[in-house]
């Protein structure tokens, strides 16, 4: 079970969090033309990288904030966590 | 039966407390502190089971977790507990155990015929033997294999025992209380670290319990007692015995199972049977010790052949002799220690040493005691079937290939020692890649991936001096990193006998003309020939060899067999062991009971139960409850002998005719506040929200980005920047997360806050033609006329002194209102509604009537919004704005969602107007069409229409709009029903929606 540092609450066990997927995905802007292909990429296509991955976690049983976690997908090492609005390196 | 093999003046069992137990129905005695194994051996019992494949007799091989043979079934407190290791289970008064894998008895086992059919059970036999003809599989092969497989029978009854989970944090977790565990725990604890020391056995001390050593001016046992006593007295230390750390998971999370009551006749009041500890440790010291390796020779699985360290522990800890004519077969000095112990207890052993001219203090001591030692000698084969009676021994040539001088000597046990294997399981589980150490012919941990260090013999340190020095240093070093204290305790001096080098020899060659089975894996009957065959058949990877031959599988996970297996594979392949590598170590290290894993989260306790504030009223008024997610909701209120069908019909009819009240507290409620709230709702919902005036409610549908309907509900503008959103009961939590996602990550520029208020409000839906009159009486000071409070209107009012909120919204399709008060007033509100409603013939209604009302109105709910439907499918396309953008809008223009024959919701009525259509039925054109019959859609919800007094269902079918009026069939293969139906509009009752606006 991972031990995740919530930038709002401190280190907490994984079972307080819900996983939220790739944090680098950006929602297309509202009211903007977008091709079927680009929209499909946004809705469905995700990379499954081995190694460093910036991902979203929702501190669902804690402060209810979405946070960004930089984690190694093969070793589970967590390098850094960010608040939702914090700029990532 | 007398304990013929019990020694008088040695051992740690409590001689003052005699304990009786039964094994296979026969009564035996032992002492408090005995295990089943030690007590049976004391009584001269060595045959306890039958092997997995050949049903060969099985005795005891070890003295702890590594035991491959003595797996028994325990009956305790009317519960059946399989997979009990006799070497670990302590006896208690009245204990009942029996053998497994034998029929009719362990002494006479029919299955032993397999032993003579060995040629049919080669490596991978289940891939070969049971293949043809394929039709034999279900009826003949599978039942046969199922009957023959497995050790013991699980209980099929509900387990009444209590199991608990505990979460703990510490600076340092130490796994094992041998010399390295004790020393490091002591050093770290004295340096201020919060330490947990876990010991698998009942007694602390590990190898110190059986070694002839001194630490400081004390014996090993005295020293360990002193350290443990001191550790126990320290407030920063938790010391646990009977506790196995079995799993090393991510981020230094380790799991330990504590056997609290397993050694007692009955679980004590207020104590669980077992407790599972989830321990998050800043640092871990693995001091799990090492396990002696067997030597491989003919019939080395005969009862009476056992590890020499086990024989020594049975003497020193339990005061039990494993035999009176022991033969010690060793390739190192450990066997000598056992021989010396035998000698001290008046038994004359013979030592066979595979080495030619070894020299050490221990060997000299053995010689001086007059023990007979034969150098360059091996056991060729054990003789005897149910117990060792003699052994064929032989001289072995210097190149270890040729045997000579074969002779038979009498013996009643053969104690083997093939040197030691460090227990690297936990280190390996943590991600530590091990390396092969040539000096000890075994793997030891190398580079840590997590915050762990392995110390003592688990790290290949086999002298006490090295172990103690390393452990004190590590304990200090690790604790210093955490506490930054500098309290160093002095390291005591150690007195021990020096050992000589071990012999790499481990497998005795077969004499000419003999084909003895030489076993590598004792639990799964894997012999040398099986590995040889697997390699001949082309298996190369050790992982494949393991699975094909079952080497190292099952409950003992090859604790005694793995390394010998690797040795053999590398010998045949002409490789060295590190090239072959080892199989992956996975948790659990030892079997863990399912009960402990589940803990207290059983049945109703697996999730919290949520109840509305009016729950007690419902209960007192004969409500029959139903689980709605985690909520308990009244399904119907039973009058007399009514059935569900009768009651729900009565309740629904009363809503249509008079007035009913339904507890809607469970609906999800979310407060949406902020200057940008309207804009936010406009993006979340498919319809337009910017122009909703204060004091008005609106029905909204929200989508996921893929265009599928996520949830629906009404949202009311309470004030300029304050909205009250309702969600379905089931989706409340998901919707909140969804809103938070968009506010925090996608549109952080919107100044909006959301918070769940589900539990803050108690809700009552008042529905039916009499509802306005009732409201007039409930709120005499509020104008609730059609003009004063129109459909989708909202008002704050006073309910007999209590602030209330009235929403004129309807799920039932009748003139209806929802009244909300703060939760604590919920019951008051409900009682007032019932009291005042009496003159209007009010009746409470449950979820069943609620469903009936919404189905015949064609209102969609969870069974239609099932994660596969877009707004069009549920006839909600009128709510999809063409002008503005919203979450999921772009997906709606994808080709599959715009097909002309896209599924749509319709109503379904059986032609005979009497046969109810099972939910989930398929709608088809021709019931007799060739299979697979092309389906048009499925029935999502069914009810008995109280308006028309006939069955009515909703269905989502292809091109639904154009199917209305058609005669089709509803088929339910599950219920074996085919019902001719007519497709009608989904709005079966009041299609114009006049009633809600009345």
Radius of gyration of chain B: 38 Å
Tally of individual domains of chain A: 1
- In CATH, the architecture of one domain in chain B is 3-Layer(bba) Sandwich
Number of strands of chain B: 50
Distance between the termini of chain B: 92 Å
In spatial order, strands of the major sheet of chain A run 3-4-5-6
Strand percent estimate of chain B: 25-35%
Q: What is the fold named in CATH at topology level of chain A?
A: Folate-binding fold
- Beta-strand content bin of chain A: 35-45%
Distance between the termini of chain A: 26 Å
Q: Could you say which structural class the secondary elements and strand pairing of chain B correspond to?
A: alpha+beta
**Are there runs of chain B of 5+ residues with pLDDT below 50, and where?**
none
pLDDT < 50 stretches of chain A: none
Description:
The complex is a heterodimer of chains A (89) and B (998). Chain A has 89 residues and is mainly β. Chain A has one domain (1-24, 44-89): Folate-binding superfamily (Folate-binding fold, 2-Layer Sandwich), CATH 3.30.2270.10. Helix content of chain A is 9%, strand content 37%. Chain A has one helix and six strands. Chain A has one helix at 36-43, and strands at residues 3-6, 10-13, 18-22, 52-58, 66-72, 78-83. In chain A, the strands form two sheets. In chain A, strands 3-4-5-6 form a four-stranded antiparallel β-sheet, with no helix packed on it. In chain A, a hairpin with a 7-residue loop joins β4 and β5 (66-72). The longest helix of chain A has 8 residues, at 36-43. Chain A is globular. The two termini of chain A are 26 Å apart. Chain B is α+β, with helices and mostly antiparallel strands and 998 residues long. Among the domains of chain B are: 1-157, Ubiquitin-like (UB roll); 163-290 and 422-495, 3-Layer(bba) Sandwich (FAD/NAD(P)-binding domain); 294-418 and 498-518, FAD/NAD(P)-binding domain (3-Layer(bba) Sandwich), CATH 3.50.50; 899-998, Elongation Factor Tu (Ef-tu), domain 3. In chain B, α4 (179-190) runs parallel beside α5 (220-233), α4 (179-190) runs parallel beside α10 and α7 (334-344) runs parallel beside α8. In chain B, 51% of the residues are buried. In chain B, strands 8, 9, 12, 13, 14, 15 and 28 form a seven-stranded mixed β-sheet that branches. In chain B, strands 41-42-43-40-34-44 form a six-stranded mixed β-sheet, with helices on both faces. Chain B has a six-stranded antiparallel beta barrel with strand order 45-48-47-46-49-50. In chain B, a hairpin with a 2-residue loop joins β41 (794-799) and β42 (802-807). Chain B has 24 helices and 50 strands. The chains are: A mainly beta (89), B alpha+beta (998).
């Amino acid at each position: 079970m991972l031990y995740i540092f919530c930038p709002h609450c401190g280190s907490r066990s994984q079972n307080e969090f819900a996983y939220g997927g790739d944090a680098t995905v950006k929602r297309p802007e509202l009211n903007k033309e977008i091709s079927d292909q680009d929209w499909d990429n946004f809705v469905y296509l995700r990379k499954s990288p081995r190694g460093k991955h910036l991902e979203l976690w929702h501190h669902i049983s804690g402060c209810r904030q979405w946070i960004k976690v930089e984690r190694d997908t093969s070793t589970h090492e967590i390098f850094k966590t960010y608040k939702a609005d914090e700029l990532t390196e | 039966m007398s304990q013929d093999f019990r020694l008088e003046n040695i051992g740690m069992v409590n001689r003052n407390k005699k304990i009786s137990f039964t094994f296979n129905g026969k009564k035996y005695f032992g002492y408090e502190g005995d295990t089943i194994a030690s007590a049976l051996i004391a009584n001269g019992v060595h045959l306890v089971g039958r092997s997995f494949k050949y049903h060969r007799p099985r005795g005891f091989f070890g003295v702890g977790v590594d035991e491959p043979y003595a797996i028994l079934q325990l009956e305790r407190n009317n519960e059946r507990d399989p997979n009990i290791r006799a070497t670990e289970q302590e006896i208690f008064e009245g204990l009942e155990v029996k053998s497994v894998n034998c029929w009719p008895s362990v002494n006479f086992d029919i299955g032993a015929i397999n032993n003579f059919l060995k040629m049919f059970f080669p490596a991978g036999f289940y891939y070969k033997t049971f293949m043809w003809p394929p039709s034999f599989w279900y009826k003949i092969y599978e039942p046969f294999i199922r009957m023959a497989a497995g050790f013991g029978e699980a209980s099929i009854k509900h387990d009444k025992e209590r199991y608990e989970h505990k979460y703990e944090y510490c600076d340092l977790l130490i796994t094992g209380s041998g010399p390295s565990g004790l020393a490091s725990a002591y050093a770290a604890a004295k340096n201020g670290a919060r330490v947990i020391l876990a010991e698998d056995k009942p007694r602390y001390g590990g190898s110190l319990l059986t070694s002839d050593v001194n630490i400081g001016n004390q014996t090993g046992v005295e020293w360990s007692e002193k350290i443990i006593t001191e550790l126990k007295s320290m407030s920063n230390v938790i010391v646990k015995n009977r506790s196995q750390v079995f799993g090393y998971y991510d981020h230094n999370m380790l799991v330990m199972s504590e056997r609290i009551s397993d050694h007692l006749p009955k679980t004590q009041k207020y104590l669980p049977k077992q407790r599972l500890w989830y321990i998050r440790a800043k640092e871990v010291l693995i001091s799990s010790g090492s396990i002696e390796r067997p030597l491989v020779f003919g019939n080395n699985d005969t009862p009476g052949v056992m590890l020499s360290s086990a024989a020594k522990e049975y003497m020193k800890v339990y005061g039990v002799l494993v035999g009176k004519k022991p033969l010690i077969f060793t390739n190192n000095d450990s066997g000598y220690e056992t021989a010396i112990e035998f000698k001290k207890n008046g038994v004359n052993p013979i030592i066979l040493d595979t080495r030619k001219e070894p020299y050490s203090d221990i060997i000299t001591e053995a010689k001086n005691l007059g023990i007979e030692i034969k150098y360059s000698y091996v056991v060729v084969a054990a003789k005897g079937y149910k117990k060792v009676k003699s052994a064929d021994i032989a001289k072995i040539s210097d190149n270890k290939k040729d045997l000579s001088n074969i002779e038979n000597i009498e013996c009643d046990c053969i104690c083997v020692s093939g040197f030691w294997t460090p227990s690297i399981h936990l280190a390996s589980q943590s991600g530590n890649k091990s390396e092969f150490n040539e000096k000890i012919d075994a793997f030891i941990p190398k580079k840590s991936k997590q915050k762990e260090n392995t110390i003592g013999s688990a790290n290949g340190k086999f002298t006490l001096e090295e172990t103690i020095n390393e452990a004190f240093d590590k304990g200090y070093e690790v604790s210093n990193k955490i506490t930054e204290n500098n309290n160093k305790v002095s390291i005591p001096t150690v007195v021990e006998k020096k050992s000589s080098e071990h012999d790499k020899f481990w497998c005795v060659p077969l004499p000419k003309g003999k084909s003895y089975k030489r076993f590598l894996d004792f639990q799964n009957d894997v012999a040398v020939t099986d590995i040889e065959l697997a390699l001949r058949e082309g298996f190369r990877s050790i992982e494949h060899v393991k699975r094909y031959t079952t080497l190292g599988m099952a409950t003992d996970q090859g604790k005694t067999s793995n390394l010998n297996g690797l040795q053999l594979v590398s010998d045949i392949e002409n490789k060295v062991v590190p090239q072959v590598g080892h199989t992956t170590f996975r948790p659990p290290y030892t079997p863990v009971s399912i009960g402990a894993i589940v803990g207290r989260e059983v049945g109703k306790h697996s999730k919290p139960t949520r109840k509305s504030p009016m729950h007690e009223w419902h209960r007192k008024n004969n409500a029959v409850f139903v689980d709605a997610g985690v909520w308990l909701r009244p399904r119907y209120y039973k009058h007399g002998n009514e059935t569900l069908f009768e009651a729900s019909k009565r309740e629904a009819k009363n809503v249509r005719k008079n007035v009913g009240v339904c507890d809607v507290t469970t609906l999800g409620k979310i407060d949406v506040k902020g200057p940008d709230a309207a804009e936010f709702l406009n993006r979340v919902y498919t319809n337009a929200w910017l122009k909703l005036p204060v004091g008005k409610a609106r029905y909204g549908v929200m989508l996921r980005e893929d265009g599928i309907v996520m949830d629906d509900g009404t949202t009311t503008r309470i004030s300029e920047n304050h909205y009250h959103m309702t969600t379905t009961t089931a989706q409340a939590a998901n919707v909140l997360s969804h809103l938070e996602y968009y506010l925090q990550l996608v549109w952080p520029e919107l100044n909006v806050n959301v918070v769940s208020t589900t539990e803050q409000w108690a809700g009552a839906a008042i529905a039916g033609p009499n509802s306005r009159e009732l409201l007039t009486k409930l709120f005499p000071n509020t104008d609730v006329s059609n003009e004063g409070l129109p459909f989708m209107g909202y008002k704050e009012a006073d309910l007999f002194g209590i602030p209330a909120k009235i929403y004129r919204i309807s799920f039932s399709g009748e003139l209806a209102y929802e009244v909300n008060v703060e939760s604590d007033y919920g019951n008051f509100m409900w009682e007032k509604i019932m009291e005042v409603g009496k003159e209007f013939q009010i009746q409470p209604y449950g979820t069943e009537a609620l469903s009936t009302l919404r189905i015949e109105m064609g209102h969609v709910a969870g069974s239609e919004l099932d994660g596969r439907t877009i707004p069009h499918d549920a006839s909600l396309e009128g709510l999809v704005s063409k002008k503005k953008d919203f979450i999921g809008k772009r997906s709606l223009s994808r080709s599959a969602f715009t097909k002309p024959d896209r599924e749509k919701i319709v109503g379904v009525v059986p032609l005979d107007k009497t046969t109810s259509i099972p939910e989930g039925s398929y709608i088809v054109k021709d019931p007799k069409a060739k299979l697979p019959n092309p389906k048009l859609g499925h029935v999502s919800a069914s009810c008995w229409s109280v308006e028309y007094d006939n069955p009515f269902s909703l269905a989502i079918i292809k091109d639904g709009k154009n199917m209305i009026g058609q005669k089709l069939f509803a088929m339910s293969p599950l219920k074996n029903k085919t019902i001719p139906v007519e497709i009608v509009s989904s709005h079966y009752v009041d299609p114009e929606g006049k009633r809600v606006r009345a």
